[in-house]
Amino acid sequence: MVTMKEIAQKSGFSQATVSRLLNGDPTLSVKEETRRRIIEVSEQLGYATGSRRIALPRRVAVLDNATREEELADAYFDELRSVLGDNARAQHMELTSFSHIDDLIADAGDFDGFISIGPSVLSSDRLLKLHLVLPYGVFIDINPAPSLFDSVQPDLSQTILDALDMLVSSGKRRIGYIGGTGFTMGLHEYPEDGRLTAFRNWTERLGLDAEGLIYAQGAFTVDTGRTLGEEAVNDHRDDMPDAFIVAADSIAVGVLQAFTAAGVLVPRDTSVISINNQAIAQYTSPTLTSYDIDQNELADTAITMLAEAISSRRTLHHHTFVSTTLVVRDSFVPAR
User: Fold this and answer.
1) φ and ψ of 176, to 5 deg
2) Distance CA 231, CA 121 (A)
3) How far apart are CA 166 and CA 257, in angstroms?
4) Given this structure, which CATH class describes domain 59-154+303-323?
5) Could you confirm whether domain 4-53 is CATH 3.90.1150.10?
6) φ and ψ at 63, to 5 degrees?
7) Angle formed at CA 227 by CA 221 and CA 229, multiple of 5 degrees
8) How far apart are CA 137 and CA 177, in angstroms?
9) How many Å apart are CA 77 and CA 117, to the nearest integer?
């Protein structure tokens, strides 16, 4: 029989913390990664609390909520689907995909919980109906119903701040932003993407003047980037900003194309930092400095979070942010 001491030794946490967590102490406050690690170890060792074993769910639905836009824009979610599937198979979980929330609602009784990927807007009434029939779910990449379901997201607000700090430390003060539109939080739909909201907030707090340097409209596609890049060049041909933060690699590809066509050389005339670190970032000209989003960590965290919610039957909802990592290439090289 597995003991608390064995779980504590393997997980690296105190026996008291392990005991309180696995026995459902409501007064215990620990970080999500601590909770996840202890539960993972207890599952690996086959620990059971009374007659109930803490185990990963076996029947999980995937609400595939990603719209098809274009190849580069879709590549991020294609990779996320693949990574989620790999993680699930490694845990002997059976995944069933749904492209429409109504179909998932109709078949909810067949599943222990669900994981959702993709940014498409879901109506509040559908989310409420889903919660009534399948209360355990985790949204990856967005947070459309924080009072109903859990979520795990890349920390894009911190990413924007990190990018601004890096640029300022390299002597760049006139920093622009290029991105798409659309953002959902709770039951509210906003026309402004969260990355742009963070950019406005942080530039104001850092005392950076971004007046006339923000270009944000359209989908997250190469065409959007090309159009907005052309607008930026037309507005600032003789006085380009020191740098641009671009919301996604798919947009950045179009931005670089527009700049090259107009004779704007990156990074000589302006620097570019993007987000996502898709494979294409290695093949643009110049190669693209971009923040990497660890999709394996997103998927693994979502699975663990769902398992913990189902095992503990908790009613409070957890929202986890995963940090990003800058991958430096030619479009911007930080000052040493």
Assistant:
1) -100, 175
2) 28
3) 24
4) alpha beta
5) no
6) -90, 100
7) 100
8) 33
9) 8
Tokens matching residue 8: 């504590």
Structure tokens belonging to residue 231: 């607008």
Asked if residue 137 lies in contact with residue 122, where contact means CB atoms within 8 angstroms, the answer is no
Taking the domains of the chain in order of start, what are their residue ranges? 4-53, 59-154+303-323, 156-293
**Nearest one of 61, 47, 63 to 9, comparing CA atoms:** 47
- What is the Cα gyration radius of the chain? 22
Q: Please provide residue 81's backbone torsions phi and psi, each rounded to the nearest 5 degrees.
A: -60, -45
Neighbours of 214 (CB within 10 A): 16
Q: Fold identical between 59-154+303-323 and 156-293?
A: yes
d(CA 140, CA 44): 25
Q: Is the domain defined by 156-293 classed in CATH 3.40.50.2300?
A: yes
pLDDT (tens, 9 = 90+) of the chain, 336 residues, equals 567 778 889 999 988 888 788 877 767 888 878 888 888 888 788 776 544 445 567 899 999 987 666 667 678 888 999 999 998 888 778 899 999 999 999 999 999 999 999 877 788 899 999 999 999 999 999 888 999 999 999 999 999 999 999 999 999 999 999 999 875 444 455 567 889 999 999 999 999 999 999 999 988 899 999 999 999 999 999 999 999 999 999 999 999 999 999 999 999 999 999 999 999 999 999 999 999 999 999 999 999 899 889 888 888 999 999 999 999 999 999 998
DSSP summary character for residue 143: B
Query: In degrees to the nearest 10, what's the CA dihedral of 173, 179, 181, 183?
Result: -70
Beta-ladder partners of 190: 183
Six-digit token pair at 288? 């693209």
CA torsion through residues 317, 123, 300, 277, sign: negative
| Residue that is written with structure tokens 């990449």 in the block | 141
Outline where the chain has alpha helix (H): 4-11, 15-22, 32-45, 71-90, 101-106, 124-133, 156-169, 194-205, 222-236, 249-261, 295-312
